Request: fold
Amino acid sequence: MASAVPVLSRDDERIGAGFPVVSELESLLPGGRLRPGSAVSVGRDLPLLLALAAPAAAEAGAWAVVGLPQLGVLAAESMGLNIGTGLWVDRPGKRWPEVVATLAEAVPVLLLGPLGPATGRQARRLAAVLRRTGAVVLTTGAWEGAELRMAVTSSRWEGVGEGHGLLRARRVQVSATGRGAAGGAPRTVRLWLPGPDGRACPFDNDPNPMNTPVDAPPAAPSEARRGLHVVG
Reply:
């Protein structure tokens, strides 16, 4: 089966190589892009996962989500993902490393839930498949050998005041640490995630929030999905 994207050397640090990300997150990645064949962990924050994935998936033309049955169409679409080019495998089971390796042969951008640990042999095989195909893994779980680890270190929802109203936008601080080309001192950015339109945007695009912030965990509603859908 053909590789998902052209294969690049692990030492290739050219600016512009790899997949794009939203401009607000560019400073967290080496070269401002997702390096082909790499894995990035985002903690358990679904909006961060989707914001990171959307531009990459748009350029790649195809994406897949594995082990995130709670991810709904509206949440994915609101962050810019094209549902028509996506593939869902809700419950891959204990053989999830094989599922991910198979998908990586054809799908350039993989979004993973917390799938559990992989054995050393499985982890090495997955790393080899990613290097060969150039696919990228973005995961809310732990990933052995992840090049970059991101996390929302603080967040504040805006929109609810005096005990009523609707959550409209969330101010977040995202930090990143890594190894290799992504190493060095921790890096931090602040942005709206999501902003009032459901997507990431810089703080200078102030949505004129209400005065009372509300801390709440990010949620991704589950709805009926369109397009290709595989239930494992």
Notes: The radius of gyration is 17 Å. The longest strand covers residues 164-178.
